[in-house]
């Protein structure tokens, strides 16, 4: 009796969960499908669920823009900005977690508040600064900006992870004569690695999806994928299929990366901020 | 593109010079082929010491860091010798230009083209920021006839002197006039457009209607009501509703002109609360509500093109450039049944209609002026038109720029609307009189720098009225107040 | 926070103040991040303050000189400004309520065991990886378009008239789209938090006869409070600056129905090229961001220090 009820419950829960999952995922699925339609198919009403898949939209997208150039820029910028931000935030988070002073909390809050400014409010100053330093349309410029915009969140995340590291372990290391460098690199970092990894993953995702600075500060040489998308949104003529194909191309790498790394992301988060 | 080994060597050298505080052009800078312009590989090393000491140190540190990471990243902003960076809009004709530009590179092997293709809004903001701050990221800009005279007067554009072979006299006079300031050409037209009425002959035949050659707005409204069939998703009338000075305000301005209204009187007092504006806007809102597609406030030119092309519109009043796309069976479901007529007339029946051109221009700050001019004369030449005709068919050639295109029998055959468009452009009369005298030029825009601001604001207000949020009277009162604020702030009106 | 038994014992933050030498060391380690962020926030801020009292229009070089507080006056007396403030509050508040509320329920749901749970979880967090520009384009063109959209087709299929979402209910639709982007993030964080809840504890509560609702109310929810604060804080940071979604779907309209503060500043800066006015808007936005930050972060800090 109860067994049967438990089974029914499991089915109900599974059904509900799958319905939600499919409903949330549906727009992405539809985008991928539309990318394989012809333009007239893409806007036919009612929409065709069954159609002849074609690669023509993809062919046209590849013929028009050098996708790999944009994708490589996205990868390079996201990876480098994430590494730079991690390297900067480890010492800061260490100091906050283990050497707190009177102003530690205030500093942390101030850092986070810098992240709340709408970027558009400082666009012209940043544009002029970037021009003055020759950082317009350079990957370096975007790496610097992404590092700085993500830094507060990363310091804060690492801080929560580090606080979970038992202090006695660090002290034991110090007793053995470890210098601070050794204490950080050989004791703390291995312990906090899952947390650091998930912080880095989050930073990668944020950098990849950032569209404001990338659109305004780059044009060609350093342009990442958001610029690629901007050349397919609302051109003349029918564009739904091409737009879907281009969108799929822009999203696919980070989506697959997210899927593969989601276990790691969760493992890291469990360790720190939200346990 | 620069070979990365060279780049590395150069960066090393540059870093060394920096170290010894010798700030000058690094030795590894490439000589430009003409010898006229020198371009550094990636870093503007020509710049000598500027700024106060702390600022300088900050800059130097950042640059050093920049240099370091550029080693990791490979080439930075590449402005190698002979590379032209072209900013253009992602419209169909420009996409063709990009495809065919390989031909240009073949005949000019020492010029490499670097394309930046963006949608119109993004393009405009990027290009304007770039030129106004003299950042020099682009060597060739795609800009409208709204920008050309304003920017030319500010000294932002290089004057052009195409040679005799280019045959500048072949450019349609009204188009050419819009690009000329003080007798000098500042841009070359890539394509140009006026306005006309498209309609579906099959729907008209079914409803027993005939479209006159020069319909009035009253007639358009009657036709729209008769052919609208919402159950089958046939909407009698499609018009621009998407807010923006180049979107709904282009159409509305042209509409207001033929209704006898205008933006400003001779003292720059906004006239948006006049009876003419009210009549025009009331017509627009009620007609679209009765026979327009749902979501009219998100429909710009492209959206309407897609709607008409997929058979959802009975009539559409918009740019003549749509003709080439609607008559092209590869891009349109209704290629066989499109008819066309002149733009409808309002109670006034006269006034400037519509003249827009997309042009290629060279910023005064470009260091590749000579090469850039080679490219833009190529892309706007007769030969280019013939090249497109050969590869994409005559119907797809850039329209509205050259008399020789309209003289060509092949074009007249492929594009039944050809002579019609020619007349429309000739008669657009962008600087002609409105019902009452006006202090500004421009047909479907107001040729003053402030119009982008004004058009953006009023465009939103008009869209709000179209979506039913506000009444026409309220909308016009808000618009009047908003425009008054802007012209006051800018000092046009005292 | 330490109610969960059987975990590695975690020391509270060191009680005594560290020695002077160690504090100096701490300051040294902190300095790179702090100095960079100071430069990053102060230099543009100073420039923005300067421009905000200048007459400066990119496309109109005839406008020069000192504007005093003119730019602020134009901004603050602009009726659109209040609307934008209100819209910002609705957008942030609405998305927070939806993502946290729905996120908590869905996190509990996805914590249960059911066939294919791993795949379902991956699917449900996917929207978080989609860039905002793309999700806005996707919703506007493929989902909600009143003629070609899938949702419109579904409504027609059941005999309803499709709703023109973006012009009829612009702000509500935007809240919906942005919630779709951020719901996965909330689920991810909250699910993680629930998983870290001790199975033993849940079991004990069940043994004590607590029903699912009581378990949720007295065990899960209190345990989630810290995770919820994290979600609220990170989301607020991004929601205050929502821009791409608005720019792609409604361009702030119709009228100013979906203009938030970030978009208002954008339209001043890049649609009207009025750098002076945009800078005044930027300064106001910075003040507002700091007020929000002060309130929010204090609340968050209390929860995080525990």
From TrEMBL, chain A:
The keyword Transmembrane applies. The keyword Transport applies. SUPFAM superfamilies: MetI-like (SSF161098). Gene3D superfamilies: MetI-like (1.10.3720.10). GO terms for biological process: transmembrane transport. It comes from the Bacteria. It is a multi-pass membrane protein. The chain crosses the membrane at residues 12-33, 67-96, 108-130, 142-162, 183-206, 239-260. Its main location: membrane. One of its GO terms (cellular component) is plasma membrane. Keywords: Cell membrane, Membrane, Transmembrane, Transmembrane helix, Transport. Pfam families: BPD_transp_1 (PF00528). Belongs to the binding-protein-dependent transport system permease family. This is Carbohydrate ABC transporter permease. It comes from Gluconacetobacter johannae. The lineage of its organism: Bacteria, Pseudomonadati, Pseudomonadota, Alphaproteobacteria, Acetobacterales.
TrEMBL record, chain C:
This is Sugar ABC transporter permease. Belongs to the binding-protein-dependent transport system permease family. Residues 85-296 form the ABC transmembrane type-1 domain. CDD domains: TM_PBP2. It holds the Pfam family BPD_transp_1. The lineage of its organism: Bacteria, Pseudomonadati, Pseudomonadota, Alphaproteobacteria, Acetobacterales. It is found in: Cell membrane. One of its GO terms (biological process) is transmembrane transport. One of its GO terms (cellular component) is plasma membrane. Its main location: membrane.
């Amino acid at each position: 009796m109860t067994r049967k009820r438990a089974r029914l419950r499991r089915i109900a829960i599974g059904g509900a969960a799958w319905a939600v999952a499919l409903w949330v995922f549906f727009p992405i699925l539809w985008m991928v499908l539309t990318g394989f339609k012809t333009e007239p198919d893409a806007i036919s009403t009612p929409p065709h669920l069954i159609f002849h898949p074609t690669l023509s939209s993809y062919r046209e997208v590849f013929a028009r823009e050098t996708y790999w150039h944009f994708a490589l820029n996205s990868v390079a910028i996201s990876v480098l900005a994430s590494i730079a931000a991690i390297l900067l935030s480890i010492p800061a988070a260490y100091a906050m977690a283990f050497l707190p002073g009177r102003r530690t909390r205030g500093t942390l809050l101030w850092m986070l508040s810098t992240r709340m400014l709408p970027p558009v409010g400082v666009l012209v100053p940043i544009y002029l600064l970037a021009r003055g330093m020759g950082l317009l349309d350079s990957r370096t410029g975007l790496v610097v900006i992404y590092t700085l915009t993500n830094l507060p969140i990363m310091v804060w995340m690492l801080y929560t992870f580090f606080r979970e590291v038992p202090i006695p372990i660090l002290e034991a290391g110090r007793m053995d004569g470890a210098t601070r460098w050794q204490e950080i690199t050989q004791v703390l970092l291995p312990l906090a690695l899952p947390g650091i990894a998930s912080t880095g993953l989050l930073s990668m995702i944020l950098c990849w999806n950032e569209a404001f600075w990338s659109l305004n500060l780059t044009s060609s040489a350093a342009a990442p994928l958001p610029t690629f998308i901007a050349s397919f949104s609302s051109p003349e003529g029918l564009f739904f299929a091409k737009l879907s194909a281009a969108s799929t191309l822009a999203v696919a790498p980070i989506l697959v990366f997210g899927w593969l790394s989601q276990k790691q992301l969760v493992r890291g988060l469990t360790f720190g901020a939200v346990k | 593109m620069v070979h990365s080994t060279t780049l590395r060597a150069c960066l090393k050298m540059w870093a060394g010079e920096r170290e010894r505080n010798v700030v000058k052009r690094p030795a590894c800078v490439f000589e430009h082929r003409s010898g006229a312009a020198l371009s550094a590989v990636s870093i503007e090393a020509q710049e000598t010491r500027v700024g106060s000491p702390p600022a300088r140190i900050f800059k130097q540190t950042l640059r050093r860091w920049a240099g370091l990471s550029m080693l990791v990243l490979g080439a930075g902003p590449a402005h190698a010798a002979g590379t032209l960076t072209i900013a253009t809009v992602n419209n169909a004709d420009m996409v063709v230009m990009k495809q065919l530009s390989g031909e240009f590179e073949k005949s000019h092997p020492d010029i490499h083209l670097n394309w930046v293709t963006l949608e119109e809004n993004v393009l405009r903001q990027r290009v304007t920021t770039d030129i106004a701050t003299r950042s020099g990221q682009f060597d060739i800009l795609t800009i409208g006839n709204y920008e050309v005279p304003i920017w030319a007067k500010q000294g932002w554009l290089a004057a052009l002197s195409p040679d005799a072979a280019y045959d500048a006299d072949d450019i349609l006079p009204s188009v050419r006039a819009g690009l000329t300031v003080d007798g000098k050409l500042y841009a070359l037209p890539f394509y140009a457009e006026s306005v006309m009425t498209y309609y579906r002959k099959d729907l008209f035949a079914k409803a027993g209607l005939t479209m006159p050659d020069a319909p009035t707005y009253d007639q358009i409204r009657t036709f729209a009501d008769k052919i609208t069939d919402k159950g089958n998703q046939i909407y009698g009338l499609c018009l621009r509703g998407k807010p923006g000075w180049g979107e709904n305000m282009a159409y509305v301005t042209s509409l207001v002109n033929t209704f006898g209204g205008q933006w400003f009187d001779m003292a720059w007092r906004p006239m948006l609360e006049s009876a003419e504006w009210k009549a025009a806007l009331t017509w627009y809102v009620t007609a679209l509500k009765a026979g327009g597609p749902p979501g009219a406030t998100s429909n710009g030119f492209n959206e309407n093109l897609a709607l008409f092309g997929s058979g959802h519109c009975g009539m559409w009043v918009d740019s003549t450039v749509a003709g080439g796309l609607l008559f092209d069976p590869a891009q349109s479901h209704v290629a066989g049944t499109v008819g066309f007529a002149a733009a409808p007339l309002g109670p006034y029946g006269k006034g400037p209609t519509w003249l827009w051109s997309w042009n290629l221009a060279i910023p005064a700050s470009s260091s590749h002026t000579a090469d850039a001019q080679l490219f833009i004369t190529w892309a706007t030449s007769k030969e280019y038109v013939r090249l497109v005709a050969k590869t994409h068919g005559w119907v797809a050639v850039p329209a509205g720029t050259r008399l020789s295109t309209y003289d060509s029998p092949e074009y007249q055959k492929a594009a039944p609307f050809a002579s019609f468009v020619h007349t429309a452009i000739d008669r657009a009369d962008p600087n002609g009189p409105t019902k009452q005298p006006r202090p500004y030029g421009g047909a479907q825009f107001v040729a003053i720098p402030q119009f982008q601001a004004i058009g953006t604001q009023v465009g939103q207000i008009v869209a709000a009225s179209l979506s039913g949020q506000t009444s026409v009277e309220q909308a016009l009162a808000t618009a009047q107040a908003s425009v008054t604020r802007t012209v006051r702030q800018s000092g046009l009106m005292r | 926070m330490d109610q969960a038994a059987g975990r590695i014992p975690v020391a509270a933050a060191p009680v005594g103040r560290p020695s002077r030498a160690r504090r100096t060391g701490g300051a040294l380690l902190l300095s790179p991040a702090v100095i960079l962020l100071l430069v990053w926030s102060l230099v543009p801020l100073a420039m923005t303050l300067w421009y905000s009292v200048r007459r400066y229009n990119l496309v109109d070089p005839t406008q020069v000189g000192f504007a005093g507080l003119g730019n602020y006056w134009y901004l603050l007396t602009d009726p659109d400004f209040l609307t934008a403030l209100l819209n910002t509050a609705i957008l942030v508040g609405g998305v927070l309520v939806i993502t946290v509320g729905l996120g908590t329920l869905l996190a509990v749901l996805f914590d249960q065991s059911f066939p294919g749970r791993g795949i379902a979880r991956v699917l449900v967090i996917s929207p978080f990886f989609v860039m905002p520009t793309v999700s806005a384009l996707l919703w506007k063109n493929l989902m909600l378009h009143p003629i070609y959209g899938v949702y419109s087709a579904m409504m027609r299929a059941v005999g309803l008239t499709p709703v023109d979402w973006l012009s009829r209910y612009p702000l509500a639709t935007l809240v919906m789209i942005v919630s779709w982007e951020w719901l996965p993030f909330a689920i991810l964080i909250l699910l993680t938090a629930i998983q870290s809840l001790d199975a033993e504890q849940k079991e004990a509560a069940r043994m004590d006869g607590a029903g699912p609702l009581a378990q949720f109310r007295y065990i899960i929810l209190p345990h989630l409070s810290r995770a919820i604060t994290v979600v609220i804080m990170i989301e607020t940071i991004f929601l205050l600056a929502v821009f791409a979604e608005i720019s792609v779907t409604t361009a702030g309209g119709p009228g100013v129905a979906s203009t938030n503060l970030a978009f208002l500043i954008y339209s001043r800066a890049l649609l009207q090229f009025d750098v002076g006015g945009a800078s005044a808007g930027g300064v106001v936005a910075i003040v507002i961001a700091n007020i929000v930050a002060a309130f929010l972060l204090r609340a968050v800090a209390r929860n995080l220090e525990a």
